[in-house]
Amino acid sequence: MKSFLKKKKNESNWFYIDASGKILGRLASSISKYLMGKHKSNYVNNIDNGDYIIVLNAEKICVTGNKKRNKIYFNHTGYVGGLKKNSFNDLLKKCPEKIIKIAVKGMLPKNSLGRNIIKKLKVYSGNVLKHLPQKPKLLKI
After folding, report:
1. How many CB atoms lie within 10 A of CB 25?
2. Are 113 and 48 in contact (CB under 8 A)?
3. Rounded CA gap, 106 and 32, in Å?
4. What residues form DSSP beta bridges with 14?
5. What is 14-63+96-138's CATH number, 3.90.1180.10, 3.30.420.40, 3.40.30.10, 3.30.310.250?
6. Residue ranges per structural domain of the chain
7. Does the predicted model carry a pTM greater than 0.85?
8. Beta strands 72-76 and 52-56: pairing type?
9. Mean of the pLDDT values across residues 42-48?
10. How far apart are CA 71 and CA 87, in angstroms?
């Protein structure tokens, strides 16, 4: 009996998601599932065979409980005393795309494969679909 080894082929599809009214964690977990390719029957954990995901209306994302006031995102510049803090509300006003990217990146593998997978996520704060030549399909979550 021979072992089956999947080879990398360009079988990626394009999907888009409307994030308005969706809960952040539930949306991020389903996005990461599609980015890694776990929804496909030929999933292999060491090969990137996932799909491209476009997220629209990132500024209309929801969180439950008191996370809107209490959730804090930390960033360090690398210099002494370079710890930067941003609250959820501040980041939602300045750069709402970062919130979804950070949430999805935390659910991907922490290696070079995860860094390549996150490049297939496109997040936009508006409702304009910029990737029309790829013919993305609506993904209902």
Report:
1. 14
2. yes
3. 9
4. 52
5. 3.90.1180.10
6. 14-63+96-138
7. yes
8. unpaired
9. 88
10. 6
DSSP label at residue 54: E
Contact 114, 106 (CB under 8 A): no
pLDDT band at 70 (very low <50, low <70, confident <90, very high): very high
Residue labelled with tokens 């995102």: 73
Distance in angstroms (rounded) separating the CA atoms of residues 140 and 138:
6
Q: What is the pLDDT of residues 23-33, one digit of tens each?
A: 999 999 999 99
Residue 111 has phi, psi (to 5 degrees) of -155, -170
Structure tokens at 98: 């970062």
Question: For residue 89, what are the contacts with CB-CB under 8 A and spacing of at least 6?
Answer: 68, 69
3 state SS of 72: strand
- In tens, the pLDDT along 92-130 reads 999 999 999 999 999 999 999 999 999 999 999 999 999
Length of the chain counted residue by residue:
141
Token code pair at residue 106: 């935390």
